[in-house]
Amino acid sequence: MSDWLWQSASDLGRGIAAGKIDPVALTETYLAAAESHEFGPRIYVRLTRARALAEAEGARMRAHSGFRRSLLDGVPISWKDLFDTAGVVTEAGSMLLKGRVPESDAAVLQRATQAGLVCLGKTHMSELAFAGLGVNPAYGGNTDPKPGTPPNVNDPALAPGGSSSGAAASVAFGLAAAGIGSDTGGSVRVPAAWNDLVGLKTTHGRLSLKGVVPLAESFDTVGPLCRTVEDCAQLLAVMEGGKPADLRGASLQGARFLVLEPYASDVRDTPRAAFFAAVEALAHGGARIESGTVKGIEEAMGLSPALFATEGYGTWRDVIEAAPDKMYSRILERFRGGKDFSAPDYVAAWRRLLELRALWAHETAGYDAVLLPSVPNLPPDVDRLMKDPDFYVAENLLTLRNTRVGNLMGLCGLSLPTATASCGLMMLAAPMAEEQLLRLGAAAEAAMT
């Protein structure tokens, strides 16, 4: 049964359908693994054992009667602790929300439950989702970073990536078949890349945000962290209530990609080498590769402070200022940066961003996707991040630089693991083009293995 912990969610679903895997035994295996794992308390805020076993029992009955609701009916997954769970504490990694108990599930969790998936529990995350490193020393009310900071699968001393840190760790350490996270500036793709997973950033507005604790609702998106592209396709369909992308026959033949400069080359040595080796593999698979820049992207990046921090602070100002001492100082500073911009600044920034999005669409219209390294740097050491404020700020900004391109331009994005640990290749595609992106991702996945 231990090998179940390392199978893809889709393979587990096929095993259930074939009668080879019992959903209750599968769920008990995952729960036991999470409860006994040395890093379990740093990955899961809390397990929902009773709910999980009840849902698994329902999946077992449906499997026996031949009325399974989806391919993933009976498959156990984790949920980032900003998705509301009825009657279960949901605190979004912040002591500001200590004891918050929602009355109903988030809409995407409701959809997953209706499709028969099993909710294993809630995973740790960056405080209010406003950081890319995945370090959360304030959660739990102490200065030790470990309780709220999940480990990195390649070295537990390194940052896991955030803000969906526990979601990534739950999958990477074999404690969930998949994890559901959120992505406002890179919070699915960064931890996916640093933990050698596939991470899908959906187009803003494609999946419901009802019952999701917000950071900046104009940019917030929901997305899965998985072992395979197929799993991402299945989970997108589950959370949307639709049909999964058809990945059969996916090919890179004739696909045209733009390597985005300087974001592809202006990265540290190891991620750069890993990225260009992966791009070469795509070329060998039949893709046409070009390099170039896109007009307006630097201007768009410069609008970030007026957009993200301003909306985030506007959303949380009253809660934050009622008890600022409960927050990690680095996150508090990021939120308070929203004070620096007026309402006219914010409106003007959004109007200009919409113009730049139109320019991006025009400049990239001839390409199937834009390519760049998922993250420009490798996971930094957690102890150094805690001891050196300047290092923390610099690494956090660099970590989110490439992924933020997708959020600013309103795109969908996919991070794929490369042959190098903690280095991902990112594909960015047009808004609402997830099906095309997933087909390209499936073909790229095959080309790189």
**Total beta strands:** 11
- Domain count, please report it: 1
What distance lies between the first and last C-alpha atoms, to the nearest angstrom?
26 Å
In spatial order, strands of the major sheet run 1-3-2-4-6-5-10-11-9-7-8
Query: Which segments are poorly predicted (pLDDT under 50) over 5 or more consecutive residues?
Result: none
Q: What would CATH call the class?
A: Alpha Beta
Which short descriptors sum up this protein?
449 residues; alpha/beta; Amidase signature (AS) enzymes; eleven-stranded mixed sheet; 42% helix
How would you sum up this structure, described in words?
With 449 residues, the chain is an alpha/beta fold. It has one domain (2-300, 331-447): Alpha-Beta Complex (Amidase signature (AS) enzymes). The chain contains 17 helices and eleven strands. Strands 1-3-2-4-6-5-10-11-9-7-8 form an eleven-stranded mixed beta sheet, with helices on both faces. β7, α9 and β8 (288-292) form a beta-alpha-beta unit. α5 (107-114) packs across α8 (229-240), α8 packs antiparallel against α17 (434-447) and α11 crosses α12. The chain is globular and about 55 Å long.
SSE layout and pairing:
Layout lengths: L8 H9 L5 H14 L3 H4 E4 L1 H17 L10 E5 L26 H8 L3 E6 L41 H8 L6 E4 L6 H6 L3 E4 L20 E5 L2 H12 L15 E5 L8 H16 L3 E5 L4 H6 L1 H19 L6 H8 L6 H21 L5 E5 L8 H6 L1 H11 L1 H8 L3 E6 L6 E6 L4 H14 L2
Parallel strand pairs: 2-3, 2-4, 7-8, 7-9
Antiparallel strand pairs: 1-3, 4-6, 5-6, 5-10, 9-11, 10-11
Helix pairs in contact: 2-4, 5-8, 8-17, 11-12, 11-13
Offer a concise description of the structure:
With 449 residues, this protein is α/β, with parallel strands linked by helices. The chain has 17 helices and 11 strands.
